[in-house]
Amino acid sequence: MPVIKPSCVRDLKLRINIADVISRVATLRKAGSRLKGLCPFHSEKTPSFNVDPNQGYYKCFGCGKAGDIITFVRETEQLSFTEAVETLGQRFGIVIEYEEGSGPSREERSLRQEIFDLHEQAADHFHEVFKGSGPVGEKLRAYWTDERRFPMELAAEFKIGAAAPDDSGLAARLIKHRCSEDALRQCGLFYIREGMPVRAETLRLRFRGRLMIPIRDHQGRVVAFTARQTPLTPADDASHEAKYVNSPETPIFTKGNLLFNLDRARTQVGEGKPFVIVEGQLDAMRCWQVGLRTAVAPQGTAITESQLGLLRRYHPQAECFFDSDSAGQKAAQRLLPMALKAGLEVRFLRLAGAGKLDPDLLFLERGLAAYDDLRRGSLSGMDFLRRYILPEPSAATPETTARAIGQIYEVVAAADSEVLQQQLLAEIAPAIGAFRILPHAFQADFRKFARARGRTARPAEEAEPAGRPAGSLTPERHLLMLCLHYEELGKSLSTALPHDWIDSGHAAGVLLNRFLAEFEHGTWPGRDQLDRLLETPEEKALVASLLFDPPAIDDPAKVAEEGLKQLRARALEPRLRQIELALAKGATDSNADPMSLLKERFNLQRQLSRPLLPAAVR
After folding, report:
1. Is the pTM of this model over 0.90?
2. Taking Cα atoms as reference points, which of 78, 77, 59 lies closest to residue 68?
């Protein structure tokens, strides 16, 4: 595994403006010396996501997420640390340096990057066949324009391709391009027997006689293909009867983590322009053709929580427009609880009296005007759910009604926020009368359901404020903050604070222990070079959060002394109370007599009363 030089990581952070990284995902506006916008990590209507370009950190005061440019790219693009650094280097033209002997040589590249390059070559090859003068190109162009009724301009924009029934040209092209054997075996474009040498004649193309649709990730890189069956698909094709065949999962492609057209649609969403989720790639391309530029589609499978979470990073709202047949409506119903869990506000598009709806045909016949009609007849999530699970409540039996209510409760419980749960229940309450159920009984039954599911919240006095991580109200966190912002106190704190007074059950305690050890041994690297001391994403987020907000403290030594006293009291006072209780009862045990207990009490009281920091520091 390549190891990137720490100096290279520091240089990357200094040279790249964090605002340039984040503005690709979130819209930021000036707010004093900082920038502010809607958080890409959770649903909100009032901006609480702050970016400090001078320090190079971001922090959301709503959900608590914090970090630097590397953390942001890792979380929003689902990359490892090394991949995030390499992506930033490539994006901003910075050469990445590796520790000697650990990085890729000039002659070799990472397998992932090679498979990315290979897919671009494949997309070019299929598109050239599609545009070519040969019979395959002519027939598939006719299929595209006459049967599917798409313009050639759209084919060029999406780089639509064609795979010949007996094509071996791609294999020869990739071998000539010096693609490695590993990349050819793992790219998913070919069948090859284990143990067979990799040559043009041994690589059998997975897709033959099909229309080729390149699938791009949210960065716009070709990572896979969807192949549409055509009259040219040969009878001996392994998947001849399948209308659509997708690339298998590879080192660069996981179908449940990707949405077709997201690379384009994410730049088009905004106020009043939510994502539109359709079922297939051709539906999404038809939307794009008529001017509906925010359409995305899953990869031929049921939509996943990961895909909805990906949408939420770019915009908090989506509209679902699936086919109006039973399969499409069932898929829409499955989507709703996942959307609530992801923090995505979703509405459902339908056109009254349209019969079986197909987005492709609808927009082909009526153009963008059809979208306005769809929006006028759209349903909220709860209204759609009620109509779907119990279309005629007045004719339903008590048992059918009870099952329907249970399904509603299941969906509502998927929302993590109790406030949102109550809003959803209030939204559907007007329709409850049709179920012949009293509103207060509906609410009471949901509370019972939630308790049975273990979803009831802790009492307010026990719960920490929303968005705060565990340990956020502890003295460990306050002392950690002092170590970062008042480094001159670090040595004194390391001398005054015994290791066993620190609670290492949360990240703040773990880091405080680790940082004080660095101060004690004189190896503290400084707050700007802490990467080697941070081992987990939680630790990195915590440090970024503390660094983002410089504290306004007149007397940091006094604050440090108070924090030490709190830790001391927590460590010593329970034993003092035990001794007081034992003395009050006149109790002794085999290990201690009253005199030893009195002596121990005196020592504890003395420890609790004396200053902890040296006078020179106080």
Report:
1. no
2. 59
